[in-house]
Amino acid sequence: MQQKTRLPVIWLHFQECTCCSESFIRSSHPMVADILLDQISLDYTETLMAASGFQAEEAMKNTMTKYKGEYILCVEGSVPTDADGVYCMIGGKTSLQILEEAAEGAKAIIAWGSCASNGCVQAAKPNPTSATPIHKLVHGKPVIKVPGCPPIGEVMAGVIVHVVTFGKIPELDGMGRPKAFYSKRVHDTCYRRPYYDAGLYVESFDDENAKKGYCLYKVGCKGPSTYNACGVTKWNNGTSFPIQSGHGCFGCSEANFWDNGRIYERA
Ligand code: SF4
Ligand code: SF4
Ligand code: F3S
Fold first, then answer.
1. Which of 72, 96, 160, 181 is the least buried, fewest Cβ under 10 Å from its Cβ?
2. pLDDT of 84-111, one tens digit each?
3. Residue 143 pLDDT
4. Which residues are within 8 A (CB) of 45 and not within 5 positions of it... i.e. 6 or more apart?
């Protein structure tokens, strides 16, 4: 029986908190183990690979040479461009140098999370390191943005499986996000929406309306201006999402959400 070659993947980490990786490894449908063992060959990732140091660097170099034009480059984190990039260096290279080298032979690039897609908290004012999202630094390659802080694990897995299955990137919206997961606002699929439409709101987190599960708009929910799949796909194997646990959406998948308005104030 002929063995199908797994899609080579290089996964870089720059200015980030690693929760995008944490989210990805919790995907249950599809199971992340199935993706890692059957669909892709995760040749380089600082957080999950067994190798370290020179061996790890060698693995990345081998993939870049052997699979030039074929591998997928995943990036978690933003790139600091201030002070010649010294704020984030790995193996003696700046993150910008590493990104440029790895992007050159990549078939496509996936920008994981709000850090890589929009800059996230590192880029919040005054953005002391000039944290920059990936699409502003890489040119001539398709960049798939998968925003969220972190993105939903099943969404991340779904994007990878789409690329493996169809051999091309998923259909993107005007901002570079996969339409399948980012075409609706959290507000459009929120189960509390009937309360919003009826004008029934939580006024403070401990009031009677909160106990009744009314709409969280007046306590800062940004669901009406946030595009993400949380209301449908949910988190933790489809168990819940922020609004279901009683907290408004704070817009973690939107650009500049740290600067766009305070978390507990109405948008
Ligand atoms: Fe962490 Fe959020 Fe950045 Fe992902 S997007 S690495 S969860 S700070
Ligand atoms: Fe919309 Fe938020 Fe109210 Fe849900 S809780 S209906 S997302 S404003
Ligand atoms: Fe983020 Fe809002 Fe979903 S805060 S996790 S986009 S409900």
1. 96
2. 999 999 989 999 999 999 999 999 999 9
3. 98
4. 10, 11, 13, 21
What tens digit of pLDDT does each residue of 112-128 get?
999 999 999 999 999 99
**Domain 186-245, what fold?**
Cytochrome-c3 Hydrogenase; Chain A, domain 2 (4.10.480)
- Eight-state DSSP code of residue 217: G
Q: Give every CB contact of residue 67 below 8 A, 6+ residues apart in sequence.
A: 8, 105
How much is the average pLDDT of 136-163? 97
Q: Residue 210 phi/psi, 5° resolution?
A: -65, -40
Neighbouring C-beta atoms of residue 255, cutoff 10 Å? 17
- Using alpha carbons only, give the angle 132, 135, 141 rounded to the nearest 5 degrees: 145
State the pTM of this model. Answer: 0.96
Residue nearest to atom 3 of ligand 2 (CA): 215
Domain with CATH 4.10.480.10 in the chain: 186-245
Q: Is 255 in the pocket of ligand 1 (CB under 6 A)?
A: no
Phi, psi of 74 (to 5 degrees): -105, 140
The CATH number given to 7-181 is: 3.40.50.700
